Amino acid sequence: MLQSPTNDESRVRVPNTNKGQYSPNPNPKGDKKQNRVIRFLNSQKVAPYVFITPFIVSFLLLTLYPTIKAFTMSFQRVLPGQSHFIGWNNYERIFNPTFYKALQNTTIYVVLTVVILVVVPIVLSVILDSKLVKFKTLFRASLFIPSLTSVIVAGTIFRLIFGESDASAANQIIGIFGMEPIEWRYNSWSAMFLMVVLCCWRWMGVNMLYFLAGLQNIPKELYEAAEIDGANVFQKFYYVTLPFLKPITIFVITISIINGFRMFEESFVYWETSSPGNIGTTVVGYIYQQGIQQNDLGFGAAIGVVLMLIIFVISIIQLLLTGAFKRSDE
Amino acid sequence: MKKYLLFILAVAFSILLTACGGNNKSSGGGGEANASETVGEDIEGATELTFWTYQEQHMKIFKSAAERWNEEYPDRPIKLVAETYPYDQHHNNLLMAMQSGSGGPDIADIEVGRFSNFLQGDIQLEPMNEYMEPLKDVLIPSRIDMYSKDGNYYGVPTHLGATVVYYNQEIMDEAGVDIDSIKTWDDYVEAGKQVVEKTGVPMTTVETDEHWSYWPLVSQSGSDFFDENGELILSNEKNVKTLQFLQDMVYESEIAVTAPGGFHHSEEYYGFMNDGGAASLMMPMWYMGRFIDYMPDLKGKMVMKPMPLWEGSDAKTAGMGGTGTVVTKTSDNVDLAKEFLAYAKLSEEGSIALWKQLGFTPVRTDVWDSPELQEDNEYFDYFGDYIWDMVSEMSAEVSGIKLTPYTADVITELQSNVMHSVIREKSQTPKEALKQAEESIRGKMEAGE
Known about the structure:
The complex is a heterodimer of chains A (330) and B (449). Chain A has 330 residues and is mostly helical. Helices cover 67% and strands 1% of the residues of chain A. Chain A is built from 14 helices and 2 strands. In chain A, strands 1-2 form a two-stranded antiparallel ribbon. Chain A is flat. Mean pLDDT of chain A is 84; it is low at 1-21. Chain B folds into 2 domains: 35-160 and 322-367, Periplasmic binding protein-like II (D-Maltodextrin-Binding Protein, domain 2); 163-320 and 400-448, Periplasmic binding protein-like II (D-Maltodextrin-Binding Protein, domain 2), CATH 3.40.190. Chain B has 19 helices and 14 strands. The model of chain B is unreliable at 16-31 (pLDDT under 50). Chains A and B meet through α3, α4, α7, α11 and α13 of A and α1, α3, α11, α18 and α19 of B. Chain A: Pfam families: BPD_transp_1 (PF00528). Chain A: Keywords: Cell membrane, Membrane, Transmembrane, Transmembrane helix, Transport.
């Protein structure tokens, strides 16, 4: 999906010197059968497939099979020993107020996290990459460390920080500014805020690393040339840095959208599976609640299929808009 | 060609990432058991039985039972492997194991709210009738019926779960209210007004995120969420009236506040209560343990009483919550597992252990008089030694609850919509909220037929 700006057609093409006859047999009297196997595996046509087998096998077993199974289950009422097909019934039930609420929450969450998790890390990475900043490694490490913690652990701490009592850390801080204590987990806006904060806190460092890596690829000469042309800091950022970060940005946006739609833990740690007025319910949380907690796996599977279609359509639209499907030499 | 390849790659990628979501989820909860213990591993030829629970305390009962068993029956020893998982994970793992027919334990705990999930389809649990029926006369009927289906008893109950009101004697004295004078809920509200007026402390707290303030009252009033035929009666007149009663306590007479933290098991709530935040609290008797563990400052100050009565009714309590312990069909040693389970929880020793080790009121009424139950322990120290007299007084009137496959849906609706909008926000009347919840559940019930 990611394309380097260079023409990769030429890079892929390996010089074909000894096509077919790759390894001449060093021991003509050896076991012919084994020889043939080795030669077969070594041949240029087969070898690549041998190397990708581990991925293909795990994909087929752990991803494709469950996906197909989920499709079938979405048309079933799943009970131990008594699963039976019920046609479109599960799908007919999906479009209910709770699902819409979950989808609305999830969509708002995706938009917010994508915007925050692209803009802020770019700015941070540029700052951390500049020569003016001291203790770069320290900052880099401390921004990255949150992503190593478990959401569940971090979320429990966040839940305590944002407790609704006057004594909770967050309420004390806003108290300094003379604001009234907030019941963080019970307002729809603060519920969204809590989830977004937890997610951003956690992924900020990772996205920043992506952008930092991207910054290393920008030739220094371009900045020199821009300086000679009299560009100021912002112009250099806008005309040189940003275009070069485009492939990374597309990647980060794609990942963030998909991660956002399948968000679950951030909501689970605050409210488990039932939030007041469904202010924290997400689509995946709804799958979990209906499918597993309430033992309606068929319905859960149907929501899962709908969610997959939504993610798929949005990803395709996004990739089309950002031009990821265009050939690099067009 | 390359375009299509990219397209396929994008498809594969999005499938892969969606799939990864599922994996992360289970690893987030922690794949390992919280606690795991083994009894009898040094005995040669012992039959291994596994026990899963979601409440670490429950392991104590089975551990001590296994030790007694191995002494009593040296010819057929047991090696018991007991494991505790987090609540959600435990029930989900168990449900998946039952669904797929493999990987389950021999014996497992199932919480009452989740029990009906396990009674659908071909039931993967073993009936315990051969051990329960002989004891029928001494077991509280409502507590064994809730784990049964079509005349088969699948779950062995853990405790009576009688709901009581815990009064803070200090605050009541300060307000000049005699606890014994509170006979009906009307008296309770009047006493509450006096408490608020004299001390400024609220009379009680109402949960907004869970259902323990509402369900016991519903059950005590003689109603329930489902009738005996499994018909949904969530918004019937009695239930509306009961919810109105709760709303009025918060907004009309202003003697109650919403529970800090949203429910009576939150850290915020323990702190609030421990500091004398409210004069009384209605919860089932198994909440005693929470007082001892989390509210040490209230020791010697709390007094338990049966629930005040509804006008024209004698019901003094409601049996709430609970855990049914089951033997699974997938067990390799079904007979041994059943015998051991009965030994651990239905025998006299087992019932006594339930009280001595966990402070649970056993459902076997014939052990209540036994001398072991009158011995001093931390529960007597904390609450006083009147506990058994009170239990005997209430037990004739323990109202039961009806569980159906849709009980979990009702609880979800109560937690996420009804309690929130009626009690916390007061944005809906009890009738509106219950009607709306009922419609949503009914939609699901009709679709599920």
